[in-house]
Design a protein that fits this description.
Blueprint lengths: L15 H9 L3 H4 L12 H10 L1 H12 L8 E3 L10 E3 L2 E2 L1 H12 L4 E6 L7 E4 H17 L7 E5 L4 H13 L2 E4 L6 H11 L3 E5 L2 E3 L2 E3 L1 H10 L6 E5 L12 E3 L13 E2 L3 E7 L7 E6 H15 L7 E4 L6 H13 L3 E5 L10 H9 L3 E4 L1 H10 L2 H4 L8 E4 L6 H11 L6 E3 L36 E3 L12 E7 L9 E2 L3 H9 L6 E9 L5 E6 L4 E3 L2 E3 L1 H9 L4 E11 L3 E10 L5 E4 L2 E6 L12 H8 L16 H16 L1
Bound molecules: ligand 6R9.
The site of ligand 6R9 has 21 residues, from helix 11, strand 24 and strand 25.
């Protein structure tokens, strides 16, 4: 059963003969200059094929062309997926901050690098490449003078702002790794991440401002570091005018430093950053990304998936505390010399027109956001979009969860006015950058709603069966693996390479296991069906949560839903669905499917629905709820528990 592909492609396919004319006139050198030297490559399909079958040649050419090296690499790749050994561009030395800043300062110092879209609409701040370099160098010197060395790991607990970006780049400049922790996390969640990363330095701000509310970030850091003996110093920047109590450990970031900071020459495989993400156990995993491969993959996907061109304003609204913020608010756009927006606010502050008012005011060309926000805004109605001029938009992106057809169509029709390709981008913290997305492809190639569709250059997605055998035919579903290493992939889990191997390399030897399920359509397009730990098995039929949610979401009273399985004597699993609706706590049973209407779903701070929590509620295992520290609104769980009990007592 596949429920999501029913709506027809929205981009009129061109006739075959016209397509042929198009591909014949395709100018490879204009599309990707370094590909002009690839033998036998004259169209996109051939380029894709070349990137797989001549992977070393492809990545070497791209790495030489797009990165600025201090000394060249001697080996393109040395990877063995089955053993968890991943190395790219060995022998090469470079500095990531030089690639993101100095080289653009040489060519266009006054170009705007960052537009800081502050919480209060209309108060944006623009930062040029010259001043971002200046800020980065002063910070780099401050860190160096205070003893931060190559190989140290600095934890950054800041909202999206230019100083946060400069802090990340200052670490990169002096060779320290950074560990950005989302500034909405609790003191305990922060402390756990500081301890695991063994950071002795933390960078924060006095207070954050979000949705009109002031958030006491420095106080949270104070509480966190009480339980972190490794922390020797906390740098404090001022986001608001309000003074905060400073201890002996604290250092004001106002200290003046020299604006020239010698960049460290880093090996390609030195660590650039750690980023923690939840695993299936309680303990978060610190995924490790390294210098050259990560940067190259972020910049290439940013350029090609979104069709980013020089002069465009790129608006990724993810927080810098997530991988999306790292790759598409910071590293990808800056390495491409682009102009990128840092969004400090929420989609509904001061009203549900915020995104679109911002698009109009900043003249945003590419907008990249999460399905959860799109579903929320859809509910408020089209007029919030129509109030504003969104005609600058060229590409719309979606990331983080499957985007249901209703939300996809609204995004395409209302936000994009039916003109902009919508790219549903599938990837993970582990992959470093986008792996599957509808673009790049021919400008008129079809895009199917809610489908990530096409692998990026050098990416080889495969589906396997339970025994790990490759599923070679189309129109099939299974665990999604990646069969070829790529430069952007995570290298290890900090302090736990064994866990890295067990999680990603051992389940299907020779392949990188993503933990997601996917369907490959008749045409060979990929559609993500959701996390495999959420998969439902009814009478031997594996159903992805995404496909059932898509149907439930079509009900007019439903804003969004989360589908989970529960144990069933006969079928193995039945289906329960929690839906956010205008009604609350009424339950209905439809042919073995239980619906429970709730006000809110348990979501992580990045907008992912925590289905594992719902499963525990339904299984009446309240003791096994596990780590809830990443939940946006823990009170949602209590409501659901109560509603579920009411539902059970009515049955
Ligand atoms: C980038 C990011 C990764 C997990 C991933 C998958 C889900 C992300 C998706 C998607 C369906 C998409 N996911 N993009 N599912 N369609 N376009 O979100 O990284 O926070 O590590 O999450 O998110 O389940 O495995 P991360």
């Amino acid at each position: 059963m596949w429920l999501r592909c029913t709506s027809k492609c929205v981009f009129a396919s061109l006739s075959r003969s016209y397509n042929n004319v198009l591909s014949r006139s395709f100018n490879i050198a204009a599309f990707m200059p370094e590909a002009a030297g690839f033998e036998g490559v004259s169209d996109r399909a051939a380029l894709q094929e070349f990137s797989l079958s001549n992977s070393d040649h492809f990545w070497a050419a791209v790495a030489r062309h797009r990165l600025t090296w201090i000394s060249p690499f001697h080996t393109v790749q040395d990877c063995d997926l089955s053993r968890g050994r991943i190395k790219w561009f060995e022998g090469g030395k470079l500095n990531v901050s030089v690639n993101c800043l100095d080289r653009h300062v040489h060519t266009c110092p006054e170009k705007v690098a960052l537009i800081w879209e502050r919480d209060e609409p209309g108060s944006e701040v623009k930062v040029t490449y010259r001043s971002l370099l200046d800020m980065t160098c002063r910070l780099g010197n401050l860190l160096r003078r205070r003893g931060v060395k190559k190989g140290d790991c600095v934890t950054i607990y800041m909202p999206p702002c230019p100083l946060a970006v400069a802090s990340m780049l200052a670490c990169a400049r002096i060779g320290a790794a950074h560990n950005v922790v989302f500034a909405g996390f609790s003191a305990e969640a922060l402390a756990e991440r500081i301890r695991d990363a063994q950071s002795s330095t933390v960078i924060t701000v006095n207070q954050g401002v979000r949705g009109g509310r002031v958030i006491e970030l420095k106080k949270t850091v104070d509480t966190a570091v009480e339980g972190c003996p490794s922390v020797k110093q906390v740098f404090v920047a001022m986001r608001t005018e309000n003074p905060v109590v400073m201890t002996d450990r604290d250092v004001s970031m106002e200290e003046l430093e020299d604006a020239v900071c010698e960049p460290a020459a880093m090996d390609s495989e030195d660590v650039l950053f750690l980023l923690y993400t939840s695993g299936s156990t309680g303990k978060p995993k610190g995924l490790v990304h390294t210098q050259a491969g990560y940067l190259l993959y972020a910049l290439l996907t940013h350029r090609y998936v979104f069709s980013y061109h020089d002069g465009d304003v790129f608006g990724c609204v993810a927080d810098i505390g997530w991988i999306t913020g790292h790759s598409y608010s910071v590293y990808g756009p800056l390495a491409n010399g682009g102009t990128t927006v840092l969004f400090e606010s929420t989609p509904v502050y001061p009203n549900p027109g915020r995104y679109w008012e911002m698009v109009q005011r900043l003249r945003i060309n590419q907008f990249y956001g999460a399905p959860t926000a799109i579903r929320l805004l859809l509910k408020y109605g089209d007029h919030w979009v129509h109030k504003y001029d969104c005609s600058t938009l060229k590409t719309l992106g979606s990331v983080g969860e499957p985007i249901n057809t209703e939300a996809w169509e609204w995004y395409h029709r209302v936000v994009g006015d039916g003109r902009c390709p919508v790219v549903d981008t599938w990837w993970q913290t582990e992959t470093g950058g986008i792996c599957i997305a509808p673009r790049p492809s021919d400008p008129d190639a079809e895009i199917v709603p809610g489908m990530a569709m096409r692998p990026f250059f050098g990416m080889k997605p495969v589906l396997v069966d339970g025994e790990g055998k490759l599923l070679t035919s189309n129109n099939t579903s299974g665990p999604l693996c990646l069969a070829q290493p790529w430069p952007g992939m995570a290298r290890t889990i900090h302090n736990n390479h064994q866990r890295f191997i067990e999680t990603y390399c051992q389940p299907y030897p020779g392949y990188f296991f993503t933990g997601d399920g996917a369907h490959r359509s008749e045409e060979g397009y990929y559609q993500i069906t959701g996390r495999l730990d959420d998969v439902i098995n009814v009478s031997g039929h594996r159903l992805g949560t995404a496909e059932i949610e898509d149907v439930v979401n079509h009900c007019p009273a439903v804003a969004e839903s989360a589908v989970i399985g529960y144990s069933h004597d006969v079928k193995g699993q039945g289906i329960r669905s929690k839906t956010v609706s205008i009604m609350s706590f009424t339950g209905t049973q439809i042919t073995g499917v239980f619906l429970q209407f709730v006000q809110r779903l348990p979501k992580t701070r990045s907008g992912k629905i925590m289905r594992r929590v719902l499963r525990k509620v339904v299984e009446q295992d309240l003791g096994g709820l596990g780590d809830l520290s990443t939940l946006d609104d823990p009170a949602a769980v209590q409501e659901i528990v109560q509603g579920h009990q009411d539902l059970c007592s009515k049955k």
